[in-house]
Design brief:
- It is a single chain.
- With 146 residues, this protein is an alpha+beta fold.
- It has one domain.
- A 4-stranded antiparallel β-sheet has the order 3-2-1-4.
- A hairpin with a 2-residue loop joins strand 2 and strand 3.
- Helix 2 crosses helix 4, helix 2 crosses helix 5 and helix 4 packs across helix 5.
Length: 146
């Protein structure tokens, strides 16, 4: 654990000032969605994500921005005091993307094997899973909800 924390801090030290601001936004977003996922329903969280304030024009480099934000959300989750789930990370990433005018979809999928049932959450931008293996859609059957 100490090695992992040290490695994450070394990565964080190399960030630019702008990236530090985004890392802070990700850290607080993770905390918000961690607490919200414990205290509120999925429907209320979904409303928060769907109707986030779109303040800027849609950037032409949406995928590049999404991948950069995903890396910072992941780093912030590794530096967090609380254990962050894929659902909390995905909600945080989607919220940050929406604030930047980037359309995205929150996906929740299940995988059932003989041994267990597993679930995973991820974000897609323009049909591409951000920060996930290319075959994530094949590994997990996406649940459809309204």
């Amino acid at each position: 654990m100490l090695k992992s924390l040290r490695r994450n801090l070394l990565v964080a030290r190399k960030l630019s000032a702008a990236d530090w601001l985004l890392l802070g936004e990700a850290w607080w977003g993770l905390l918000y969605f961690f607490l919200a996922s414990k205290k509120t329903s999925f429907e209320r969280l979904e409303k928060k994500l769907k109707f986030a304030d779109l303040k800027k024009a849609i950037p032409s480099d949406s995928l590049l921005v999404a991948w950069g934000l995903q890396k910072l959300v992941y780093l912030a989750s590794r530096l967090h005091l609380l254990g962050m789930t894929c659902f909390v990370r995905a909600c945080t990433l989607q919220s940050m993307l929406k604030r930047r005018g980037i359309q995205s979809e929150l996906r929740i999928g299940m995988n059932r094997s003989r041994a267990a049932i597993s679930a995973h959450a991820w974000v897609e931008v323009m049909g591409q899973a951000i920060g996930e293996a290319e075959d994530i859609g094949e590994q997990f059957t996406s649940l459809h909800y309204n």
